[in-house]
Amino acid sequence: MTLRTLTERTWLLPLATATFLVFVGGSVLLVAVLQAPAWVIGLLLLPSFLMTTGALAVALADLLERPSERFRFGGRLLWVILIAIFNVLAFLPYWICVARHPWHDQPAGAAASERRRV
């Protein structure tokens, strides 16, 4: 899978945040309230882990491919630091502030590929 392909999947970012919240809420509900055995948390962990890992790859690919002038709030370095520190909790703000905004009909990776050709 190329960086360009990953940057087209930014819809995974809010989905990963929602999956994480369902994991945390579901774990608390099952273990604390419904008295389920603790191993049930492992069953809920797998989808959350897979979604978070995939969304992290998408977010980093989008950060690398998006032209610097297309960051609406903060710069590339700010978002790299936020995603590195807060991980799944930073996906939704990144998606709202940066990733869901188009590049003015410029396909993902076009700016980077143009610089490589010169």
Commentary on this structure:
This protein is mainly alpha-helical. It contains six helices and no strands. Helix 2 runs antiparallel to helix 3, helix 3 packs antiparallel against helix 4 and helix 3 runs parallel beside helix 5. The model has no long low-confidence stretch (mean pLDDT 81).
Number of strands: 0
Distance between the termini: 25 Å
The percent range for strand residues is: under 5%
Radius of gyration: 17 Å
Quaternary state of this entry equals single chain
Element-by-element helix/strand order: HHHHHH
- The percent range for helix content is over 70%
The shape is: elongated
Structural class of the helix and strand makeup?
A: mainly alpha
Q: Which ranges are low-confidence, i.e. pLDDT below 50, for 5 or more consecutive residues?
A: none
Mean pLDDT: 81
What does the main sheet amount to? none
What's the domain count?
1
Number of DSSP helical runs: 6
Please describe the structure with a list of short key phrases separated by commas or semicolons.
118 residues, mainly alpha, 71% helix, 0% strand
What's the SSE blueprint?
Blueprint: H1 3-7, H2 12-33, H3 40-65, H4 76-86, H5 88-99, H6 110-117
Helix pairs in contact: 2-3, 2-5, 3-4, 3-5, 4-5
